[in-house]
Amino acid sequence: MTMIVTGGAGFIGSNFIFHMLDKHPDCRVVCLDKLTYAGSLSTLRSVMDNPNFRFVRADICDREAVFGLFEEEHPDIVVNFAAETHVDRSIDDPAIFLKTNILGTQTLMDACRKYGIARFHQVGTDEVYGDLPLDRPDLFFTESTPIRASSPYSASKASADLLAMAYHRTFGLPVTISRCSNNYGPYQFPEKLIPLMIANCLNDKPLPVYGEGINVRDWLYVEDHCRAIDLIIHNGRVGEVYNVGGHNEMRNIDIVKLICKELGKPESLITHVGDRKGHDMRYAIDPAKIHGELGWLPETKFADGIKKTIQWYVNNRGWWQEIISGEYQNYYEKMYGNR
Ligand code: NAD
Ligand code: DAU
Q: Would you call 153 a catalytic residue per the annotation?
């Protein structure tokens, strides 16, 4: 079996490639990645020499490159992780989000139509459902919760989901979609909350919490997300959406305090800064469908996963220090300089 994994040099895609090569020795994995600021070949170093692995640098919006790769590889399965993923960047400059996340997905699905495919899996996000109020802990996102995106990022991901469903209905493309809550774990780019706070703590820099820090996210260890996608592509029903999340809601401020505690740093590093525009208050997934149909449950408890993650960043300073030493400095100054 040959699988094309797009965006595999990023956070979740790389973890998914490690998972597939480890659990499915019969599977050949071809990673297609543009290597934007968020992708790094150093992340894939451990699998570069694996005979079941191939890396191709290309843009999912580049029809010629994408169709050429399909012509060569004739993949059985495509899993699309490739995307612009950072909400704050989408607020700063939405255009590339619409291009990559919508038109890139279309290009991949057009190639799937032309060359035939057993499965096209779109990696989606719970952010397409908008947010939930903080004072209604009884409410959760289900697969039938209406789409109500808040940011240009989530609107672009919602558009991609709608397009994928339209390709299923109109052209019979065998599509599945997963919508996952916030992931954490190794190789997450240090612009996102958890790795940013770990890196800043380790460098004794201020910890910029947006607003009061009372926004709630539903955190899932990345390996649990990878197992969910593996189950969906093998046993999930075509044309279906599966929400993925593990009932692990945490307020941002509590996560930042926990990171300070684990690293022995003072909470006085915490600095409240201007809030994100349109900031979603609470995400919370109801995972009953994937549990009931596919038997999926998260395996890593947050208390263990966060310790493992912090330790990974402590042990792999070279990986993130290289990232934050370059263009990231300009990004950081622009986002946080006058906040
Ligand atoms: P990431 O930003 O860490 O990585 C994205 C990868 O996509 C990078 O390797 C980048 O080089 C590549 N890429 C970007 N544009 C490309 C293009 N035009 N062509 C080819 N490659 C391109 O992202 P992530 O956090 O690993 O997220 C992966 C997917 O999972 C995304 O679709 C995201 O929407 C979804 N998701 C993420 C989370 C989360 O918490 N991180 C949760 C739910 C869903
Ligand atoms: O829910 C899934 C989504 O989770 C994915 O689809 C996105 O790709 C992923 O980036 C993530 O989006 P969030 O916006 O929830 O993640 P982020 O790490 O950017 O922020 C998490 C929370 O922390 C959010 O409420 C904003 C806050 N925050 C973030 C940063 C970077 C801060 O308070 N300070 C910060 O410096």
A: yes
Domains identified in the chain and CATH numbers:
2-185+220-245+279-299 (3.40.50.720)
* Ligand 1 centroid to residue 114 C-alpha, Å: 25
Residues 6+ apart with CB under 8 A from 309: 184, 185, 186, 194, 198, 221
When computed from its CA atoms, the radius of gyration of the chain, rounded to whole angstroms, is 19
* Cα 59 versus chain centre, distance: 18
The binding-site residues of ligand 2, defined as CB within 6 angstroms of any ligand atom, are 85-87, 125-127, 181-182, 192-193, 196, 208-210, 215, 217, 252, 276, 283
pLDDT of residue 74: 98
* Lookup: tokens for 2: 């040959």
Is 187 catalytic? The answer is: no
The pLDDT of residue 339 is 87
Instruction: Compute the Cα dihedral for 42, 48, 53, 56 and give only its sign.
Output: positive
If phi over 0 gives left and psi between -120 and 50 gives alpha, with beta otherwise, what is residue 87?
alpha
**Measured between alpha carbons, how far is 321 from 313 in angstroms, rounded to an integer?**
10
- Residues of the chain where predicted confidence (pLDDT) is lower than 70: none
pLDDT digit string (tens) for 59-92?
A: 999 999 999 999 999 999 999 999 999 999 999 9
Measured in degrees and rounded to the nearest 5, phi and psi for residue 334 equal -65, -45
So what's the pLDDT on residue 326?
Answer: 87
Dist CA 87 CA 97 (whole Å): 10
153 Cβ closer than 6 Å to some ligand 1 atom: no
Q: What confidence tens digit (pLDDT) does each residue in 39-50 have?
A: 999 999 999 999
Q: Pick the catalytic residue: 59, 73, 127, 280?
A: 127
Question: Which ligand does the CA of 280 lie closest to?
Answer: 2
Check if 127 is active-site.
yes
